[in-house]
Design brief:
Length: 470
């Protein structure tokens, strides 16, 4: 009898912890859904607003670069003022910005609204991850939860292209932004009902100079990658941009090294597992975003496929990610991050190499299999990278830990879009397959880099500091 009574509270607590995970994962679904829906709708947006590939790059990267710039600051704000409070603010801003995107009359307004979406999204992903980490103190349970967390992105990847294609076919491209409204509304209700408030154990001062310099550096670098080929790398504007990026980066490093409570503790990057996780996140999302953009432009422009057909072609990639992400979490819990990272690198490289021979009339089965391989690689990669990065910081800094990982992801997304877009910008439909070849080689190179990351992350288990149960 005594044993039965003692066992009941943990079971109840476990149900509540996993409910918190489900609610917070909805935010990851929202962010991922928005990315993939917009991606498959880019050609329709270009036709509707009269813009080319470079303008479409800004539609994507205005969101990702602002998101990357503010993630760490949002994590620190959440640790200081309350994670649930910041999370709810993020939902409200994201929802309002989505409505602004839906009614945008011009490219400039759409890009500005996408940047506002990035501000809202910066308060969602890392803050929700911090809430999950705080709710699941056991390392093995946390590893499984992170696997589920990663699989949610795969689900959003699966739902986004197909849902976006169907919405565009039925209601036009603006509907891909209207769809966010019911998701935001549901998330707000669930957060109010189930998510407890939590804070970091120690609040930190806000690092406004560091935040400003980081934003300038990231925005300038991505802007150069998008506009550099058009301006010419030796033009006065490009030279000025490179100078500004170098000065902002140097200033950021100097400021962070001198502050007692920096926005980003650069000393963490001296630890091989943490540095490997950050670089691996950049590589994974560079490959993913480049693959999604190149696939969308190739199928719709070069092959004449509809948005819905393009979304269906992307489905194997999403299914591979969805199936393998929770499996990856289990592997991390049992064997550490190295085995799933090796699998991730091998599958991603194989998929990229398979598409490097893409031609105007490449057989659809080859395309589908290659996209499936990339999706499997992504599914295996996310959990070990996230687990290693979060494990590299004390629990009290969970918000910052999640933010650094998410910053690396979004930086990779922005770079992938900018580089892939630059490769095919101005290319006629007949030449798209050939112009995209270096992009697919980039995807393969990112996969090979994950093999290096796997070797560096072998010590992740032994170098991770012990976690308290608080």
């Amino acid at each position: 009898m005594t044993t039965t009574i003692a066992a009941a509270p943990p079971a109840s607590d476990a149900r509540r912890r996993w409910t918190v995970l489900a609610v917070c994962a909805l935010s990851m679904f929202l962010v991922g859904l928005d990315t993939t829906i917009v991606n498959v709708g880019l050609p329709a947006i270009g036709e509707g607003l009269g813009t080319g590939t470079r303008g479409l790059e800004w539609v994507v990267d205005a969101y990702t670069v602002v998101l990357a710039s503010l993630l760490i600051g949002s994590g620190a704000l959440a640790d200081r003022f309350g994670r649930r409070r910041v999370f709810r603010c993020g939902l409200l801003v994201f929802g309002a910005a989505s409505l602004a995107c839906a009614v945008a009359p011009s490219l400039g307004v759409l890009v500005a609204a996408r940047a506002l979406q990035g501000i809202g999204a910066s308060m969602l992903s890392p803050v929700a991850l911090a809430i999950v980490v705080a709710a699941l103190p056991d390392p093995r349970e946390r590893a499984r939860a992170i696997g589920i967390w990663a699989s949610v992105f795969g689900l959003s990847l699966a739902a986004g292209p197909v849902t976006g294609g169907a919405l565009i076919a039925a209601l036009g491209w603006r509907s891909v932004f209207w769809i966010n409204a019911p998701v935001v509304a549901a998330a707000l209700v669930l957060v109010a009902l189930y998510v407890p408030e939590s804070h970091g154990e120690r609040t930190r001062r806000l690092d406004l100079p560091g935040q400003a310099l980081l934003t300038v550096a990231l925005c300038t670098v991505v802007g150069l990658l998008i506009e550099g080929p058009r301006l010419g790398w030796t033009s006065p504007w490009a030279v000025a941009g490179c100078t500004l990026a170098a000065l902002a980066t140097a200033g950021f490093v100097r400021v962070e090294l001198r502050r007692t409570e920096p926005l980003m503790d650069l000393g963490l990057f001296r630890r091989p597992p943490f540095a490997a996780a950050a670089l691996g996140a950049v590589a994974v999302f560079t490959a993913l975003s480049a693959a999604l953009l190149l696939n969308t432009l190739y199928l719709q422009h070069a092959r004449g496929w509809t948005p819905l057909a393009t979304g269906l072609a992307t489905l194997p990639m999403a299914l591979g990610a969805t199936v393998c992400a929770p499996w990856s979490g289990t592997l991390v819990a049992r064997h550490g991050p190295r085995p799933p990272l090796l699998l991730a690198g091998a599958f991603t490289a194989a998929g990229g190499l398979g598409l490097a021979v893409l031609g105007p009339d490449t057989a659809t089965p080859l395309l589908v299999v290659a996209l499936l391989l990339i999706g499997i690689g992504f599914g295996f990669a996310n959990a070990p990278i996230t687990n290693t990065a979060v494990g590299g910081l004390p629990p009290a800094r969970a918000g910052v830990a999640g933010a650094i990982t998410s910053t690396a992801r979004q930086l990779g997304s922005a770079v992938g879009i900018a580089v892939a877009g630059a490769l095919v910008a101005g290319t006629d439909p007949a030449g798209l397959a050939g112009a995209s070849r270096p992009g697919w080689l980039l995807v393969a190179a990112c996969g090979l880099f994950l093999l290096v990351v796997a070797r560096a992350s072998r010590t992740a288990r032994t170098t991770t500091p012990p976690r308290s149960a608080g």
